[in-house]
Design a protein that fits this description.
By secondary structure, this protein is an alpha+beta fold. The chain is built from two helices and eleven strands; from the N terminus they run E-E-H-H-E-E-E-E-E-E-E-E-E. Helix content is about 15%, strand content about 30%. The model is unreliable at about 125-130 (pLDDT under 50). It comes from Pongo abelii (Sumatran orangutan).
């Protein structure tokens, strides 16, 4: 046994035991701490790509409306008097008959929105029609 300067007893280990231990610790310190992935791939690694029918679309630029991929800025006709954004709103019939009335309602994020349960955005009679 050996004694160091402070008087604590230490064991003498052979170099054949210490060398691999030092090399292992050194290699562990060199390893990167986070996963390396290609730039811009983060959202796609763990999430399924959104689909519209059998086609993939970019939800930052498009949505799926009636099994068709639609631009977020695209509008559609709602009744005779107004337009709506199909990515963000619903065109809902309020009454039928000789004079049909329509209401534009908001789509609720993350829910399969339906006309009877969505909040009203505007009534088409009071909303101006855009070209």
């Amino acid at each position: 046994m050996r004694f160091n300067v402070s008087g604590i007893r230490t064991a003498h280990y052979p170099r054949s035991v210490l060398a691999p231990a030092y090399v292992s610790v050194f290699l562990l310190l060199l390893c990167p701490r986070k996963v390396i992935a290609p730039a811009g791939s983060e959202p796609w690694l763990c999430q399924l790509a959104p689909r519209c029918g059998d086609k993939i679309y970019n939800p930052l630029e498009q949505c799926c409306y009636d099994d068709a991929i639609v631009s977020l800025s695209e509008t559609r006709q709602c009744g005779l008097h107004c337009t709506f954004w199909p990515c963000f709103e619903l065109c809902c019939p309020e009454s039928f008959g000789l004079t049909s009335h329509f209401v534009v309602k908001l789509k609720v994020q993350g829910v399969n929105s339906q006309c009877h349960s969505s909040p009203i955005s505007s009534k088409c009679e009071s909303r101006r029609r855009f070209p």
